[in-house]
């Protein structure tokens, strides 16, 4: 019970902060809405939103000369000022155009709870870069109030004294009959309706926030998508992430969706050779002799020794193995921002290993393991270090 009370208290403080923030920044929010580019925006999550776990980022990245887009984040203080100028990766670079759809999924569990700015960056063939930010956003994995706008506090109920007027009989209020019809209600400014149960299918229509549509079926493919009937009678499919569901779903049939469309053969566009060069530098363990079941930090210096800046922020992948047989004992990741020529950034990654003490462990660190960031040399992105795990408190 005490834990629930603490969560409620923290939630209440966050609501108070949001109300104060909304009062302070009305003109800023209105101004931002006036300059939204329909081809470069984040429509979800909106400002002043609470997130946790894996969250779909909805919007558009569809500029005419776009080469790729990516999404990054940085933490803010209570005055909405950045704690660092560096943006770290939330969604790695993507080359496909997106219009009013899912840009990617941000796993908020890899960051600390707090206030954040989320930024969409679109690189263009002309060399121009377009940045669009959404702030403030609240990450609250520990409070368990995720993916919602802070709820209003309950309104006090005023009880009026009995009326002195004689002869007035108050009829009992009839209990409303709940509508059991299974239906979806759009929970964001707009939601696409597609020909099949996935974003690979073409868009055949859309519904606005608050609009409803009856559910005809649910995908037999296990995607969770609903088949709905539009007002004009057309059948289409909607993702569960863009709607709220109500009514009795127990009799909704499982429907076989259309086969996945054939993937068109892409026309290859020559990618300009980047002169950025990410290099794995020194590795620092803190403490220098890690102890079983105690968290230690692995720091890797990531340097750009090229002549141009990197096109996006990136990720360092870490794997800890038992040296005797190569079995994996732990993994984690860390992020680094866009790096200018000659710039170095230390990526610090907490790690806890609780197996095979008094033995040698081998840590392998790889920069940009998926090769999402073009660079002139991909052969200097790995660093390996060994250590002996001390027994400590382990049995």
* Average pLDDT, all residues: 82
Q: What would the principal axes of the Cα set say about the shape?
A: globular
| Number of helical segments with 4 or more residues | 2
Q: Which regions have little confidence, pLDDT < 50, spanning 5+ residues?
A: 1-34, 149-171
Give the termini distance in whole angstroms. Answer: 33 Å
Tally the beta strands.
Answer: 23
Polypeptide structure, described:
The chain has 395 residues and is mainly beta. The chain has three domains: 2-139, Immunoglobulin-like; 183-255, SH3 Domains (SH3 type barrels); 278-388, Sandwich (Immunoglobulin-like). The protein has helices at 2-24, 26-34, and strands spanning 40-44, 49-51, 54-61, 66-76, 88-94, 98-107, 114-124, 129-139, 183-186, 190-194, 203-208, 212-219, 226-229, 235-238, 243-246, 254-255, 278-286, 296-304, 314-322, 328-336, 344-351, 360-367, 382-388. The strands form six sheets. Strands 9, 12, 13, 14, 15 and 16 form a six-stranded mixed β-sheet that branches. Strands 2-8-7-4-5 form a five-stranded mixed β-sheet, with no helix packed on it. A hairpin with a 6-residue loop joins strand 12 (212-219) and strand 13 (226-229). The longest helix is centred in the first third of the chain and has 23 residues, at 2-24.
């Amino acid at each position: 019970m005490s834990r629930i009370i603490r969560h409620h208290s923290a939630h209440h403080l966050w609501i108070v902060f949001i109300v104060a923030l909304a009062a302070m920044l009305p003109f800023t929010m209105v101004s931002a809405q006036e300059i939204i580019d329909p081809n470069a925006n984040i429509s979800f999550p909106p400002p002043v939103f609470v997130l946790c776990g894996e969250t779909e980022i909805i919007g558009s990245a569809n500029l005419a000369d776009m080469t790729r887009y990516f999404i990054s984040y940085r933490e803010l203080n209570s005055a909405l000022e950045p704690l660092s100028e560096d943006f770290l990766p939330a969604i790695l670079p993507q080359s496909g155009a997106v219009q009013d759809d899912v840009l990617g999924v941000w796993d908020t569990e890899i960051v600390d709870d707090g206030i954040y700015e989320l930024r969409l960056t679109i690189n263009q063939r002309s060399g121009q870069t377009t940045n669009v930010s959404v702030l403030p956003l609240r990450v609250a994995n520990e409070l368990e109030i995720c993916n919602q706008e802070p709820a209003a506090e309950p309104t006090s109920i005023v009880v009026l004294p009995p009326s002195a007027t004689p002869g007035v009989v108050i009829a009992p209020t009839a209990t409303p009959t709940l509508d059991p019809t299974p239906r979806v209600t759009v929970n964001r400014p707009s939601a696409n309706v597609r020909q099949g149960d996935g974003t690979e299918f073409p868009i055949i229509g859309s519904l606005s926030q608050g609009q409803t549509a009856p559910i005809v079926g649910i995908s037999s493919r296990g995607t969770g998508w609903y088949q709905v009937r539009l007002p004009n009678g057309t059948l289409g499919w909607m993702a569960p992430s863009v709607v709220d569901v109500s009514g009795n779903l127990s009799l909704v049939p499982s429907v076989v969706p259309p086969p996945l469309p054939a993937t068109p053969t892409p026309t290859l566009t020559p990618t300009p050779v980047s002169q950025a060069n990410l290099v794995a530098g020194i590795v620092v363990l803190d403490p220098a002799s890690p102890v079983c079941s105690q968290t230690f930090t692995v720091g890797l210096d990531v340097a750009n020794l090229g002549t141009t800046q990197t096109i996006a922020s990136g990720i360092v992948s870490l794997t800890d193995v038992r040296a005797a047989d190569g079995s994996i004992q732990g993994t984690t990741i860390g992020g680094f921002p866009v790096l200018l020529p000659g710039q170095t950034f230390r990526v610090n990654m907490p790690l806890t290993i609780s197996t095979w003490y008094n033995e040698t462990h081998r840590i392998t660190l790889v920069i940009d393991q998926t090769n999402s960031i073009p660079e002139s040399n991909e052969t200097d992105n790995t660093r390996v270090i060994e250590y002996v795990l001390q027994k400590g408190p382990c049995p």
